[in-house]
């Protein structure tokens, strides 16, 4: 039972329980995809059924992570399968637990409002947006926003953060951003804005079927 209910793995060379950041990012990507598809169903078809199932999955998955063991989380298992050929990147389990407790609280609130009470409101909309942002940052940038609360709660520096961001160090040359690069980004934003202003009507035209595959058959 001790090996079943635990949080994090004991890995040689690490003095605290750790988790594999690569499978965590993969899991976050899975959750982000499920959430964005569910929200698209609401926005374009007014169908709340997918999001109710997704919330149930989200809540169950995070409850397993927090109360039983992350290695039994279905999405983390799928994430492990997806990145099984990649070298593990170990991160401290303690800060991830704080982040996942937050996720558990958010999903539980959503479950109460949308599944049990069967209602939606600005509260559910804001929570969905927060979950989208959290999973997006984790999966795309490898930034655990929920982990930021660890230091606020425990007044202690987290150990083994992804990319060693917990350790203050000087940036390498390949990480530095020059003024000219910032100007390129600014110029790109201006270019897109100008293009949208002058060519919006042109871009708004519906595309024609080039080969006429979906065109209605001509009447004889």
Report on this structure.
This protein is mostly helical and 220 residues long. It has 2 domains: 18-167, no CATH class; 174-200. It is built from 7 helices and 2 strands. The chain has a two-stranded antiparallel ribbon. Helix 2 (49-67) packs antiparallel against helix 4 (93-116) and helix 4 packs antiparallel against helix 5 (122-141). The chain is globular and about 65 Å long.
Give me some keywords for this one.
2 domains; single chain; mainly alpha; two-stranded antiparallel sheet; globular
Brief sketch in words of this structure:
This protein is an all-alpha fold. It has seven helices and two strands, in the order βαααβαααα.
> Given the C-alpha coordinates, what overall shape results?
globular
Radius of gyration: 22 Å
Give the strand order of the largest sheet, numbering strands 1, 2, ... along the chain. 1-2
Q: Report the mean per-residue pLDDT as an integer.
A: 90
The unreliable regions are none
